[in-house]
Amino acid sequence: MPDLVADSFPPAPIVIIGGGFSGALLAARLLEAPGRRHVVVVEDGGPPGRGLAYSGRGRLHLVNANAGRMSADSDDPAHFTRWLEHFVRKGGWPEAPAAPADDLFAPRSVYGLYVQDLLAEAVTRNTHRGSRFEWVPARAVDVIEGREGFAVHLLDGATLEASAVVLATGIFSKSRPAGRSRSRRVIDPWNLEMENIGGPEASVAIIGSGLTMVDAVVSLEAAGHRGPIEVISRHGLRPHVRRLPREWPDFLADVPDGVSLARLARAVRAECLKAVEAGEDWQAPLDMVRPHIGRLWHASDDRQRRAFVRHVRPFWESHHHRAPPVAAALVDRLVAEGRLRQSRGTVVEIDSSHRLPQVRFRPAGSHDLQGRSYDAVIVSSGIDYDWRLVQQPLPQNLLRKGMVRPGPLGLGIDAGPDYRVVGRDGTTSERLFALGPPLRGLWWESTAVVDIARQARELAIWLAESRLSDQNAGGVDRQAFDIRVAGHPSSN
Questions:
Q1: Which long-range contacts (C-beta less than 8 Å, at least 24 apart) are formed by 295-300?
Q2: Each residue of 200-212: pLDDT tens digit?
Q3: pTM for this prediction
Q4: pLDDT above 70 covers what percent of the chain?
């Protein structure tokens, strides 16, 4: 591709940076919108559709919601259920439980196939419109703005022209706590190999107690680990099991915008107690919060949001982001057997300069540091929603130039209700957009399938109506995931 030589560009494609669930779904929705357009997805982690969440190839790790809650089509709640029924019937998941498809917790790898199928079908169906889809297997490191569009700079030195850019970067894994050196015994939860752990009887520490911890425990069990596990986290909470209670009345429908989040939390707790007293599952009323949390969070001020994050967030995460039943049962069993224990504390350092890594942490309620050695340490401490802490070129460059600014409370980046990004000077961009996890600060919940599906539909409609894409795009190759941008080094 030619390098940037001027500050204006001819009509160019819509470039989506990120090919996980957010980017792939937006690409599909753009292709299906009326009109002709050229859509390019930049993703170096493999064909669009999987991303970090659904990139696994095995069947161990399950999505944390049943199929009835996982439709990628915001207008068709049963879309994934029908796809999964067909997939199981054709033998794609032979070990699937004998249960209604709507109630199944599918493997994440299977859900990744679903998203890829959805995009591939959108590409094929829209060939006759003259739309064009391309996947560039590279990493975007910077975006340069001109009069008529952007130049997207890639890690290998190539440049893509764009009429509009969408930041669909997904999640950034939180950086490891400070350590004196790197060790193969300090590992990520998705790269568990017995030789790195130290054998079946090895002592293992897991930093963090959320859903990623649950995945790590599942991986350890499948690998044959039988040793002790210590989970260290600040609040000592772990995800509750996801159950399937019957539907509860919408008790928040009449709650006005602007109500304090503290008052809202009290109302939700009271409704959950009411359910328990009536012999119902407390998860039923809690599930009714989902349709309202974005509206109520967006209408709150930073003081209310800050209080919510400080006092309610840990309980919200453990009660709302629940674990699939099979995985939760495994964790409960290991606790009952005494193999898994939890410790409350703040990890300060992982010192891997010795033969065995040592975790130094400050126990809850204490000012003193403790140090414990383990055969292996698994870092599953979550996600960096604050782009200022993400040690990657793209967010650093965009923040440095002021093209983006931190969102409320430093969560993600700021944007308007039409997904247009707001820069450091408060100016709303005409051609730079964001969706999904980068908008965490605006909507609080901006990572689940239901949230991203709605955002992708709305943003695709806006982009299609704005006519920011190349209306004279050529035809599309039916082998959607084999397409490369002409002239890109990785095409050769």
A1: 295/257, 296/252, 296/255, 296/257, 296/259, 296/261, 296/264, 297/261, 297/442, 297/443, 297/444, 297/445, 298/442, 298/443, 299/257, 299/258, 300/258, 300/260, 300/261
A2: 999 999 999 999 9
A3: 0.87
A4: 89
